[in-house]
Amino acid sequence: MAITEFLLFVLTATLGGMFLCGANDLITIFVAPECFSLCSYLLSGYTKKDVRSNEATTKYLLMGGASSSILVHGFSWLYGSSGGEIELQEIVNGLINTQMYNSPGISIALIFITVGIGFKLSPAPSHQWTPDVYEGSPTPVVAFLSVTSKVAASASATRIFDIPFYFSSNEWHLLLEILAILSMILGNLIAITQTSMKRMLAYSSIGQIGYVIIGIIVGDSNGGYASMITYMLFYISMNLGTFACIVSFGLRTGTDNIRDYAGLYTKDPFLALSLALCLLSLGGLPPLAGFFGKLHLFWCGWQAGLYFLVSIGLLTSVLSIYYYLKIIKLLMTGRNQEITPHVRNYRRSPLRSNNSIELSMIVCVIASTIPGISMNPIIAIAQDTLF
C-alpha cells in the first residue's frame, strides 16, 4: 500500500469520526462509524507481509462486522418502536406518541446498541480485539486508532443514550456502570502482566475508557460531559505523546518489549523523560494534566452520587500508577548489567527542527503537563461550545 492510499484512509477515517461526533439521525450514526471502521481495517493491515498484522486485521474485521450487525439490529428496534422515525429527537416524540417508551422493545434496542457502540469504545467485555490490533498493527496506525475511535464513539454515545433512551435512563446508567467497573478493574489488572509496550497501552486504554464512561453517566446536569471532553482532550495528548516515543524507540531498535527499554535514559535522556512524563500523566500524578482531568471527572461523578464508581476509579488509578512507574524505573536505571543490547547499541539522532516525530513528542509533552494548571477556562470552553 502506497503512502498516498495510507493518507487517504487516514483522512477518510477522520472524516467518518467527525460525522459521527455530530450525527443526529440513525442513518448517519450507522454510516459514519462504518466509514471509519472500513478505513481502520485497511490501516491495521498496512504491513501486508507481517503475520501478526494480518491476524490482527482478520480479528478486527470479523468482530467489527459482527458489532455493526448488532448495532443496526438495535437501530431497527428503535426505528420500529418510534413509528418509523430516524431523527433522534423525533424518535423521542414517536415513542411518546406510540406509548412504547417503556416497552420491552426499547430494552432490547438498548442492549443491542450498547453492544454495538461498545466495540468502538472497547470497554470490557467488548475489548477482545484491542490488544491484538494494538500489538499487530503498525504503531502510527495504533496511535491514530487509539484516540479517534474513542473520541468519536464517546461523543456519539452521549447523544444516543441521552436522547432516544431518555425514559430508560436508569437502565442504561446501570449498563454503563457495569461496563465502567469491568473496564477499570480488568484493564488495569491485566496491564500489569504485559511484556509488550503496545499491549500494555491497549489494556491501559481499556481502563481509561472506564473513567470516560463516568462522565457519560453523570451527563450534562453535573458537568459530566464537559469533564469527559476535557479529559479526552488531555488523553489525546498523553496517548499520542506515548506512542510518538514508542515509534521513535522502535525505529532505532526494532523492539516493542518493555524490558528492552532498560537504561534508555543513559543513551537518550530526551526520549526517556518525554516517555516518563506522558506515562505519569496517563497515570494521573500531580501536577500533570492527567491528574487534573481525572480529578475533575471523579469530582463530577462524586457530586452525582456515583460513590462506588468513583472509589473504583481511584483505586484502579493507583494501580495504573504502579505499572507506569515500573516502566519509568526501567528507563532510568543506570546499572550496566540491566541495560539491554537494544539500548546499548542505541544510536540517538540529533534533535532537528524538521524531525516530525520529535516535534510531536515536544508538543504532546507540553500538552500533557501545562494545561492542567488552567483547567477552569478549558472546562468553560467545553461547556459553552458543546452544550
From TrEMBL:
Principal location class: membrane
One GO cellular component term: plastid
Membrane spanning residue stretches: 6-39, 60-80, 100-121, 173-193, 200-219, 225-249, 270-292, 304-325, 357-382
Bilayer topology term: Multi-pass membrane protein
Keywords on record: Chloroplast, Membrane, NAD, Plastid, Translocase, Transmembrane, Transmembrane helix, Transport
Keyword NADP belongs to the record: no
Segments forming domain NADH:quinone oxidoreductase/Mrp antiporter transmembrane: 23-320
A GO BP annotation: ATP synthesis coupled electron transport
Compartment list: Membrane
Annotated InterPro entries: NADH-Q_OxRdtase_suN/2, ND/Mrp_TM
GO molecular function: NADH dehydrogenase (ubiquinone) activity
NCBIfam families: NDH_I_N (TIGR01770)
The protein's name: NADH dehydrogenase subunit 2
Species name: Tropaeolum majus (Common nasturtium)
Lineage: Eukaryota, Viridiplantae, Streptophyta, Embryophyta, Tracheophyta
Gene designation per UniProt: ndhB
